[in-house]
């Protein structure tokens, strides 16, 4: 399999590299928002021990989440041997970086009790309710933690 060098979409480079608590990407389908987020998240996981909460409103099975996208990017960049990929988590073998996957609708109370989350990546955020945001926002208490909020127009 041909591997690619991890790169950021040039149009989003400043977006990812400028410090921010809330990173909001809004755009149409096929605009590379989620692909770029997955690529940057994989890069960060190879560099430092981070905990990434990957969330979406409805998630009936893990394949509906960004789990598959992260697996594709890990493989695409030739990093498969650096990660332990289980049925519901992804972890970097050296840094200990970890990806967790939750559906907000059914698991918002579980998410409240999660500790040491560095990044909360909310995919399809146009479905996020005010009540859910009111729970999520104070859940990320760790200094330097971030929200990656990605959504499409309706």
TrEMBL record:
List the InterPro entries hit by this protein, alphabetically. Answer: P-loop_NTPase, Phage_terminase_lsu, Terminase_L_N, Viral_DNA_packaging_terminase
One Pfam family hit: Terminase_3
Record domain Phage terminase large subunit N-terminal: where = 22-154
Q: Which NCBIfam families match?
A: phage_term_2
What's this protein's name?
A: PBSX family phage terminase large subunit
